[in-house]
Design goal:
alpha+beta; 19% strand; seven-stranded mixed beta sheet; 37% helix
């Protein structure tokens, strides 16, 4: 099979995004680009040149309605609500006809191709210190879930110390006994415990890096507007400047060359299916 180039991954993701946008407009579902995709729309009017995925976000009520009703002739949606074997706490809309994935960090049991990530926006505690603590605790479960998933493809070799091999063997057993399922359920339960709009802030807690600054005023997501993205227009929250500055600081400044890499390029590869 031939591996997709970065640009081919981007364009395949763009077609999925167009389909999701169409569905959301037809069904009055609110969404916005998020993170690197939102930054790309503002700084590049499209993908960040080295970015390899698409992220969108919806207030939790819109997210749940989207997940329950999304239909497409070309793509499929997977999340915990329609597949309890799904090993992530958010949704993905993915291709199955043209592309296929190989990865060392599996997220589902089925064969999937290029996808876009769909995140729910949940409420966040108003007090910043309390939010950081709550967010950090949720990141603990997220980290556990990632490590247990990775252990499903861990190679137990002499390249790793005995301690590392033993730790990952234990994680593999725990994963097989259902601990990954427990971690994912805990992440979702904790996120939903603060309903979107019940406080003055919102956050995204279903997939987390070191983003304790992700504490956004509810007004930033009050309205969304169409903005250019590649050869189309998609929705971006009107408070994008405040949100992007809270996460990336001077977001219009390009990062150093050595940091211009995609999020999943080291462990995810996509291939064209044989015709």
């Amino acid at each position: 099979m031939k591996e997709l180039t970065l640009r081919e991954i981007q364009l395949t993701g763009l077609e999925i995004l167009k389909d999701v946008h169409r569905f959301c407009v037809e069904n009055d579902i609110k969404y916005s680009l998020l993170d690197g995709s939102m930054l790309g729309a503002i700084r590049h009017q499209g993908f960040i040149p080295w970015d390899d995925d698409v992220d969108i976000i919806m207030p939790r009520p819109d997210y749940e309605r989207f997940c329950e009703t999304y239909k497409s002739d070309s793509y499929k949606l997977k999340y915990r609500g329609n597949d309890n074997r799904c090993m992530i706490a958010f949704a993905r809309v993915y291709d199955t006809k043209k592309t296929v994935m190989q990865t060392t960090l599996p997220w589902c049991k089925d064969e999937v191709g290029v996808w876009i990530d769909v995140f729910p926006a949940d409420g966040a505690l108003d007090d910043t210190d309390e939010h950081v603590l709550y967010y950090t605790n949720n990141r603990y479960y997220w980290g556990k879930s990632c490590r247990s998933r990775a252990c499903l493809h861990f190679n137990y070799t002499k390249d790793y110390s005995l301690i590392v091999n033993i730790k990952n063997f234990v994680r593999t057993i725990l994963c097989m006994l259902g601990m990954t399922d427990y971690y994912i359920k805990t992440i979702i339960r904790r996120g939903k415990s603060i309903p979107f709009g019940s406080t003055h802030y919102w956050t995204q807690m279903m997939c987390m890096g070191d983003n304790s600054k992700e504490h956004n005023r509810i007004e930033t997501f009050a309205e969304c507007s169409l903005m250019p993205f590649e050869d189309t227009e998609v929705f971006v929250m009107n408070g994008y400047d405040e949100v992007l500055r809270g996460k990336y600081n001077d977001y219009m400044q390009l990062p150093p060359v050595e940091k211009r890499v995609g999020n999943g390029s080291s462990y995810i590869h996509f291939y064209w299916k044989k015709s």
